[in-house]
Specification:
The structure is a single chain. The chain is α/β, with parallel strands linked by helices. It has one domain: Response regulator (Rossmann fold), CATH 3.40.50. The chain contains five helices and five strands. It has a five-stranded parallel sheet, sandwiched between helices.
């Protein structure tokens, strides 16, 4: 089964993403910031994909992406960035992201991006 880590400091957004992804057949793990996200990545089962917000307290998405890139065991995990920031600002901070979705996004956009990044794997 494909496991997805959702990292977002807004509980309602995290819950909505979790519900949509679970309804689509994915296993979902959540974290409220980048530091918690890195902790979840160290646990089993290791997620197959990360969805992360950029602007969060404690550690934001850009810092989490940089930490993942520095770890050989984590750098191959694809990341989809979800943010309300302008796309140019996201691209400048989200080096290595597999996809970028600007908020607000639809469930169809999320599921489509997840399927594209995972290559249809479940």
């Amino acid at each position: 089964m494909t496991t997805i880590l959702v990292v977002d400091d807004e509980p309602l957004i995290a819950m909505a993403l979790e519900a949509e992804l679970e309804d689509a057949g994915y296993v979902v793990i959540t974290a409220a910031n980048g530091r918690q996200g890195l902790e979840r990545l160290a646990e089993a089962p290791r997620p197959d994909l990360v969805l992360t917000d950029m602007m969060m307290p404690v550690m934001g998405g850009a810092e989490m992406l940089a930490a993942m890139a520095a770890e050989p065991d984590l750098r191959a995990i694809p990341v989809i960035v979800l943010s309300a920031l302008p796309e140019a600002a996201i691209r400048a901070r989200a080096d290595g992201a597999a996809a970028i979705l600007r908020k607000p996004y639809t469930a169809e956009e999320i599921l489509g991006a997840v399927a594209r990044v995972l290559g249809g794997a479940r």
